[in-house]
Design brief:
The protein is of the alpha/beta class. The protein contains ten helices and seven strands. The protein has helices at 24-29, 54-65, 69-84, 89-96, 114-118, 123-126, 133-136, 143-153, 167-174, 186-197, and strands spanning 5-8, 15-16, 86-87, 103-108, 129-132, 160-164, 179-182. Strand 6 (160-164), helix 9 and strand 7 (179-182) form a beta-alpha-beta unit. The N and C termini lie close together (10 Å).
């Protein structure tokens, strides 16, 4: 059956993420122990499904790490620099070129502030729809988020190809009949999806 839509994850797919950027450099600059940032207790609600705001995340880090306003501003800058990474331009170009033959979409497990932080990449101009988990209240691999992505693009699951770097997210999509692939490298992903489209 014909593929009518191509949907990609963002982090570690359309964006290349460098884990050396955060949080270790901040911890070193401010004399915090290794792993201090990631050892902060979880919030009472899940940022990934919209349970808290970006301001609440900021305040949580500030309180548990005993940071000044200036320091927590710096922490947030480091975090967003890491989060948005750099573009995988060859993959972005291939993805964008699918239009207008097919619809394109993004399906991302995200946190509050993600849409604003990533807007400079122009994803909204490259796609027919973007589903951010923190905006819709449900995250991959919950089947409801894949169903929502299909509904918003106006396609059936079997008419959609989905690319994600996380196996459990791919498995969740595949369970609904979506043709889902694990992203390992740009050449491999382009070759594999091109074969499906043919």
């Amino acid at each position: 059956m014909a593929i009518k839509a191509v949907v990609f994850d963002i982090g570690s797919v359309l964006e290349v993420i460098d884990d050396e950027v955060f949080p270790a450099p901040f911890e070193t600059r401010h004399g915090l122990g290794e792993g201090a940032v990631l050892s902060v207790p979880d919030l009472d609600a899940d940022p990934g499904t919209g349970g808290v705001s970006e301001a609440e995340v900021r305040a949580h880090w500030q309180r548990h790490l005993a940071l000044s306003d200036r320091q927590v501003d710096e922490l947030m800058r480091d975090f967003w620099t890491w989060y948005v990474g750099t573009l995988d331009q060859p993959l972005v170009d291939w993805f964008a070129a699918q239009r207008p033959t097919r619809k394109t979409g993004i399906l991302s497990n995200s946190g509050p502030g993600a849409r604003e932080a990533e807007r400079h990449w122009g994803f909204e101009e490259l796609t027919d729809d973007i589903v951010y988990s923190h905006e819709v209240g449900v995250a991959k691999p919950d089947p409801r988020i894949y169903e929502l992505a299909c509904a918003r693009l106006g396609v059936e699951p079997h008419e959609l190809v989905f690319l994600d770097d996380m196996q459990h997210c791919v498995d969740g999509a595949a369970a609904l009949g979506i043709r889902a692939l694990v992203h390992r490298s740009t050449p491999e992903s382009i070759e594999a999806i091109t074969a499906l489209l043919a």
